Amino acid sequence: MTAPGTPTVVQRLARLAHDVGRSGLPQHLREDVARRVLDVLGNSLAATGQPAARSVTAVVRGWGGPPDATAIGSGLRAPAAAAALVNGTLAHSLDFDDTHLPSVLHPSSPVVPAALAVAEANRAPATTLLDGAGVGIETAVRLGMGGYDRELGNSVFFERGQHATSICGAVGAAVAAATVGGLDTDGIAHAAGIAASMGAGLLEANRTGGTVKRVHCGWAAHAGVVAADLARHGLTGPPTVVEGRFGFLHAFCGEQADVEAVVADLGGHWELPRIFFKPYPCNHFTHAGVDAALQLRRRGLDPAEIEEIELGVPTPVLRTIAQPTEDKARPESGYHAAFSGPYTVAAALIGGGGLGLGHDDFTDEAAADETRLALAAKVRCVADARCDTIFPHQFPAVLRVLLRDGTRHEVRVDVNRGGPGNPLSADEHATKFRLNAERVLGGDVAAGVAKAVLDLPHRDDLASVMELVAG
Questions:
Q1: Measuring CA to CA, how many Å separate 311 from each of 280, 345, 346, 380, 410?
Q2: Domain boundaries, the chain
Q3: Which of 11, 46, 88, 149 could cross-link to 436 by cystine, CB 3.0-4.6 Å?
Q4: 284-413: same fold as 9-278+449-469?
Q5: Which of 234, 44, 236, 229 is nearest to 118 (CA)?
Q6: Bridge partners for 380 per DSSP
Q7: Is the peptide bond before 102 cis (omega within 30 degrees of 0)?
Q8: Comparing C-alpha atoms, which of 253, 161, 152, 167 is closest to residue 207?
Q9: Edge to edge, what strands does the sheet with 408-413 contain?
Q10: Number of C-alpha atoms within 13 angstroms, CB side, residue 351?
């Protein structure tokens, strides 16, 4: 129980957001957020033809309403909340979005679309967008950290089958939307408190199929914008919405919740720069296995000579990338291949596109390729004790390969590519965006978007960027 006169958790988060909205983020954090905006725009452009995105866009077209904000890649303008729904869906559709550890959530995909939509609708300066998105992302990951159980060594949200990205992301999106929209401290707190009743998401689709997970970030972004609008018009949220007996953390995580983690050194220490960018468009739990497979490929290992493959991963990861065993060995679609440890290892050993694996490795045709499936069938996924000690601060893996001549190879990856310990270079970031954006835009336009977005900390012209990505 919060002592009388002591600010509650949501009030402390709102105070930080209001201060950031008034004074601005430090320059290095604005630059970090600009890279995340670029990543979201690239991922979204690449996803414009996806079935889930088409479904959501069709629904939004049917809603109608004032053309306040851009739905990326579709030529559609819609009310801010509706545009956020489309863009959040796009941002998460290819599972290419950034990841925070140890909260194990993708914060930019729900938060950036909400901030973009409100910034467009309010004709806000680009720096206001970056400041609001930054504090919204920080809010989302801090709530996720409140659901990390050190003794368990995993996210409680994840253990319970809950998608922390959409649950925490809805609150982060509300904070971003309210900050960009100019609400005061109380208004931001109410927006967050309202959105806490709106966040939801189940992870069963990762295991057994269905495309609903692609909409999770869209709905969280939509909820955030709606919550900020409701707060602006007088709806209120409970002051103890985070730490209360029937509040956010207790409802989702029970006695394993860690309220202090949400506010520890709040405003002094920023989690924002520690968020991983993805080099491969597949579930992040698969990435270290891909890193290991690519190392073996660079050594000249011939996939045709492989007899057996063992992929060792943290125990909690098995449920997502290894089970059910038959489904992961023969994924039903390109999307489901992105959640398969056996398939992603096989694809990397054979040789993929992009920065090691690319979008063409996750088409339905690629997922049905018998050469890849034959190699995937040789992959046995197991729990690895050393990986368990590292997870979820990293997503480690060990790959052991037995060749037909009896030769054995082993590669262990403790620090997966794309995070603070093994970051992508500026050229790799540029390559990722270019390969994403060129699926919709021409090469010159894509280059122009990249330059304009990375210049956002130093300019106020957001409208021209959104015109370029409108499609």
A1: 18, 8, 11, 6, 10
A2: 9-278+449-469, 284-413
A3: 46
A4: no
A5: 229
A6: 310
A7: yes
A8: 161
A9: 379-383, 306-313, 397-403, 408-413
A10: 8
CATH class of the domain defined by 9-278+449-469: mainly alpha
d(C-alpha 61, C-alpha 56), whole Å: 9
Question: Can you give the pLDDT of all 471 residues of the chain as single tens digits?
Answer: 566 679 999 999 999 999 999 999 999 999 999 999 999 999 999 999 899 999 999 999 999 999 999 999 999 999 999 999 999 999 999 989 999 999 999 999 999 999 999 999 999 999 999 999 999 999 999 999 999 998 888 899 999 999 999 999 999 999 999 999 999 999 999 999 999 999 999 999 877 888 899 999 999 999 999 999 999 999 999 999 999 999 999 999 999 999 999 999 999 999 999 999 999 999 999 999 999 999 999 999 999 999 999 999 999 999 999 999 999 999 999 989 999 999 999 999 999 999 999 999 999 999 999 999 999 999 999 999 999 999 999 999 999 999 999 999 999 999 999 998 999 998 899 899 999 999 899 889 999 999 999 999 998 889 999 999 998
Residue 355 makes CB contacts below 8 A (sequence gap 6+) with 279, 280, 424, 428, 431, 432
Q: Which of 212, 105, 224 is nearest to 164 (CA)?
A: 105
Q: At what angle do helices 185-195 and 216-232 cross, to 10 degrees?
A: 140
- Determine how β-strand 379-383 pairs with β-strand 306-313: parallel
Identity of the residue numbered 166: S
Residue 18 CA to residue 16 CA, distance in Å, equals 6
